[in-house]
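lol forgot to send this yesterday, sorry. struct tokens for the thing we talked abt
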């Protein structure tokens, strides 16, 4: 068995493509994703905030002060359009970026005219910060009208505030910053880790089964005096070693970039989030990935043994990527928590556990259920892989 393992491992280390998916990709993926998202999001928002927008105002005669303040803004350019034109068509044709429509009942005497509704027509699918630019002027004008109404009623500012909002609901969040950010971002980490581990094991698995069929070396291997189950285990450990290496490098990459980010190489919330994850959390994440990789390796090797060619094996394995996403989606459900039945669901329980570790709310007693169920499924799949390899009709399809 170990002779087969070392032989396959030596051939594996000669394949540059496999080494890239095992080593280079896990190291690069986290800085590319985190840094790329932060950089391009920040760049897009800044460009949207600094862009000069064309606008039109309908009913400006009802609110001359408001129209004058909007016209004074340097990042807005007033465009005159026919009053009766269709607003949506003007925006769709890029004649203007947005249109403000002031109602006829707009007045400085709001107690007499009542509430006025100002319509803003815009294409909200774009990042343009239209509402943010206009909202400041509207709020300023609203405060002036409100203060005028208070003075006419002989109310001070506190009485006026109580009149507008008699009861204030104050939300006090008991979750710390790590738990809050972990709930929002923790679900992404299992997705990236699982896919990377699967990718790391996929290429060697395809080569050790279907690849040997294509090269005609499988028959030579079968006539050797080594027992069949030892051949399978040797190949399995090779595929698992590739997946575990990917898992180790992935978790180490998370820890490394978390340390770098904590030294001020990213935005504040990313620094706080990454630096709050402890060394023990990273170790537990890696240990939980070992039986997960065993599941991936046994399934991938079974598919590779069954396939007639390397190309056919790759098509089967591509479908497996989609199936791996499903347990992660279950972990993102609102009612999915690492307790009860969820702690025994393979892959989903590991995804939930990684999320809990990131949040800092892990119930460590659930590790018994996680390791137990995942190891049991992995063992059953390894046994199936051995059974599959012993079938001549499968080997020589």
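and heres what i got for the seq, position by position
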């Amino acid at each position: 068995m170990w002779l087969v393992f070392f032989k396959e491992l030596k051939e594996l280390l000669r394949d540059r493509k496999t080494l890239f998916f095992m080593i280079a990709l896990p190291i690069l993926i986290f800085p590319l994703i985190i840094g790329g998202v932060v950089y391009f999001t920040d760049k897009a928002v800044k460009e949207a905030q600094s862009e000069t927008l064309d606008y039109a105002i309908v009913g400006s005669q009802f609110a001359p002060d408001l129209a004058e303040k909007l016209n004074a803004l340097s990042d807005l350019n007033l465009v005159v359009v026919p009053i009766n034109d269709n607003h949506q068509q003007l925006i769709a044709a890029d004649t203007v970026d947005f249109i403000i429509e002031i109602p006829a009942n707009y007045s400085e005497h709001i107690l007499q005219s009542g509430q006025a509704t100002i319509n803003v027509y815009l294409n909200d699918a774009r990042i343009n910060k239209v509402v943010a630019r206009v909202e400041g002027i509207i709020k300023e004008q609203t405060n002036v009208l409100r203060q005028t109404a208070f003075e006419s009623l002989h109310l001070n500012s506190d009485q006026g505030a109580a009149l507008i909002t008699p009861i204030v609901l104050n939300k006090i969040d008991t979750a710390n910053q790590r738990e809050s950010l972990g709930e929002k971002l923790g679900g992404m980490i299992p997705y990236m880790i699982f896919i990377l581990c699967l990718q790391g094991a996929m290429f060697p698995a395809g080569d050790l089964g279907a690849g040997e069929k294509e090269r005609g070396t499988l028959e030579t291997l079968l006539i050797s005096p080594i027992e069949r189950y030892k051949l399978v285990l040797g190949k399995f450990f090779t595929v698992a070693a590739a997946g575990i290496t990917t898992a180790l490098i992935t978790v180490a990459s998370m820890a490394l970039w978390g340390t770098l980010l904590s030294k001020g190489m990213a935005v504040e919330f990313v620094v706080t989030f990454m630096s709050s994850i402890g060394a023990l959390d990273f170790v537990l994440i890696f240990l939980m990935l070992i039986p997960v990789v065993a599941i991936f390796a046994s399934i991938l090797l079974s598919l590779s043994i069954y396939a007639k060619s390397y190309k056919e094996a790759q098509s089967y394995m591509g479908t497996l990527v989609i199936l791996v996403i499903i347990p992660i989606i279950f972990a993102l459900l609102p009612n999915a928590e690492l307790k009860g039945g969820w702690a025994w669901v393979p892959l989903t329980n590991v995804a939930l556990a990684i999320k809990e570790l990131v949040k800092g709310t892990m119930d460590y007693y659930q590790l018994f259920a996680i390791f137990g169920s995942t190891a049991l499924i992995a063992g059953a799949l390894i046994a199936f892989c051995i059974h599959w390899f012993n079938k001549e009709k499968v080997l020589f399809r």
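The chain has two domains: 2-34+177-395, 54-164. anyway ping me if u want another try
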